[in-house]
Every structure is written in C-alpha cells, then in structure tokens.
Amino acid sequence: MTNKALIIGSSGVVGSALAERLLEQGWNVSGVSRGRTATVPGVTQISADLTSRDALDAALAGVDPTHVFITAWSRQANEEENIKVNGAMVANVLAAIGPAGTVRHAALVTGLKHYLGPFDAYGKGAVPVTPFREEQGRQDVPNFYYEQEDRLFDAAKQFGFTWSVHRPHTIIGYAVGNAMNMGQTLAVYASLCKHTGQPFVFPGSRAQWEGVTDLTDARVLARHLQWASTNDAGKNEDFNVVNGDIIRWQWLWPKLADYFGVEAAPLPAAISPLEDRMAVAPRLWREIAQQHGLAEADVTKLASWWHTDADLGRPMEVITDMTKSRKAGFLDYQGTPDAFFDLFERLKREKLIPG
C-alpha cells in the first residue's frame, strides 16, 4: 500500500525537509501552507487557512492521507493567544481529515519549549535538570505545545489512529520565509559582516558561548518523523530529536567565521542581540542582492533575528537526551558543523547568499 502523507506547513524548514525525504522514499505527498512561498517539487500543494475549520473542510475534501505531519505554528502576541490559535489549528486539521478513516498515524513537531517554557516565560521557571528527558513531563505553566498535544491525543482517540510527538532543539535547515531559522540567519549575518567589514560578533549569552549544547538538522528530524510514523516503537510516544553530537559555540563560532572569510570577534562584555543591530540590514541586503545577483532581496524572507536571539541568549544550559529514541531503534547521527556547512552550500547554489 502506498503511503500518502499530508504535511501541514509544507513550505517551512521542517516541512520542506520532510517532503524531500518522503518523496525520495516513494511516498505520495500533499502539503498545506499559506501559499506565500514555493514548496518542494512533487508535492501536491493545498493553500488553506488553518484557523478556519470551514476552509480546511473545503480544502481537504477528498484528501485521504495515511499519515499526517503537523509542522506549522502561528506566532501570536502572547501565550494565551498562542494556545487558542495553535491548539485550534491542530484540532481543525485532524477534525477535517479524521472522519474518512484513512489516517493511520499523526505526528506533531513541537520543541524544547516543552521543557523551557513558552516565550512569555522563557527559561524563567523551574527548568528541569539537563539533559532534558521525555520522562520529565510538562512544566506548570501555560504552553501552547501542551494544548497542541492534547488536541492530538483527543483526535487519536476519536478517530483511531496512532500518534507521535517530536521535540527538536534549534533546527538547521533550508526554507525561504521561515520564522525560525538559525542557520539561514547566521549565514545572512555573516554575509552582512563580510559586506561591511564588521567582525562576526556572537549575539548570545556567556552561558551559551561557554556551555555545551546540541542542535537538530532538519534532515535528521525528517528521518525521525518517517521512522516514528512507520514503526511500532514510535507509536504513541514522545521523543527528543537532536543530531547526536554536542558543541560549544566558542568552538564552532570561529569555524563559521572561517567559512565566510570574516573575523570571529571575542565574546563581548555585554550581550549583543542581532535584532538591536540589524536596523540597516534591509538596505544593506538589497545592495548585496544587486551586487551578487541574488534570488531574494528581502532580508526578512531569509533571517529571523528575534528567534536566533532567543536561542542564543538563553541564560542556562540547554542540552537534550536521545536515549529513548536510541533504545527504540532510531540511530541516525549528523555532525552539527556539517549541518551548517551543507546548508550554506545549498544557500549559495540557490543564489540566496553570495557565493
């Protein structure tokens, strides 16, 4: 039987990597997005408003997926609205496709804010002891990830499919117009430094600079999603998903600087967020795009200063345990420096950063 995937957020950093993976594996793939950016060739594209049940019912009529992958979220003004909107999106999708009875498995991608708390209270509560483990459960704070999970669990019971929840750390991958993309953000930042002759200054905290951490290649996450959705060991389970190595930014930062031919500055005495320093980035990026014939002159389509600041500005250690996945049979590994360099090479090929 041919597997038929429906990817919610198919043009995003996770959805794109997943679509590429599943197409390579012979799946039929449909994708739902807002239609603002291009999707992977071979994906049957569906444009729909995830917040509207009626719109989704109409858009997904006749779509009969065997597997559903929810990789999208919508950033709101506060966590109360995040809970309301993002929980409804999950419920709407599953209510639209569940009654047909074709769905065998639904996977939800969340992240380490499950342990750290939402943006409104990021790392301010009683953060669990690291490495984060799935058994540590939920924090006693409102969190839209928990609402999404609950809507997934409810639908699984109602419609009789299995589920999995996937919690990556910061994702390194390719996508244009994505709101959470550190790899592309750092590539754009380094390119701006090279254009202006400025040093490559780490924008985060001393704790992140000196401590150990891990990250998630979108390709590893894509393989993890496929594995959990097609193996008994992945059914009705929550999993952390990271590359398998650990890094210190004070070790990796000069390597990234060397790749772009810029100076790696020492850690500044005070934290130096990108969002505070990038007011001139739109004008400068237009200059760079014209000079190098780039395919995208709007820097906001490539970089997300606020999200990279949030990740690199954390005042505590953030590292993830993968034992649960390893014991269940998922053994894939990806070196983190190569995850960055592979992405940078692709960005050059796609004419999104200077070659």
TrEMBL record:
Domain PRISE-like Rossmann-fold residue range list: 61-354
Protein name: NAD dependent epimerase/dehydratase
CDD domains: 5beta-POR_like_SDR_a (cd08948)
Organism of origin: Pseudoduganella plicata
InterPro entries linked: NAD(P)-bd_dom_sf (IPR036291), PRISE-like_Rossmann-fold (IPR055222)
PANTHER family named among the record's database cross-references: 3-OXO-DELTA(4,5)-STEROID 5-BETA-REDUCTASE
Any coiled-coil regions, as ranges: none
Domain of life: Bacteria
